[in-house]
Design goal:
Elements: H1 2-18, H2 38-47, H3 50-58, H4 75-88, H5 95-110
Length: about 120
């Protein structure tokens, strides 16, 4: 029984790592991203040229913007920063769109550890 569960877990991890299974935001362990639409977040990041703006602000490939010292240290603070960008740039993102973008950033850049239960 235990061997079967272990094999299933390993097979699932291999498929997830291969990109054959979509990664769900809720799997990241943060309730704030539980129902986030990752494909929508990816689309919005491209559509609003977020990376180009980040490159203009911090230079390089723009990734330095994701970890300013001490500013963004929780999923909620990071989501709030996405909301602030939306407001400042007049993007008009709805709350679920802000959450979708933040979930993609969690997955790709921040990787805040899941809270202990």
């Amino acid at each position: 029984m235990m061997k079967t569960k272990t094999l299933r877990l390993l097979a699932g991890l291999m498929l997830a790592g291969s990109g054959l299974l979509p990664m769900q935001a809720g799997a990241q362990g943060h309730d704030i991203f539980k129902d986030a639409d990752l494909p929508l977040g990816e689309k919005l990041i491209k559509e609003h040229a977020c990376n180009a703006c980040h490159i203009r602000k911090v230079g390089g490939d723009g990734s330095a913007i994701y970890r300013p010292a001490g500013r963004i240290n929780t999923p909620g603070a990071m989501r709030g920063m996405v909301d602030m960008c939306s407001t400042e740039l007049n993007l008009g993102l709805f709350p679920e769109e802000v959450t979708a973008v933040a979930a993609v950033l969690q997955r790709d850049h921040y990787r805040f550890p899941a809270p202990r239960k």
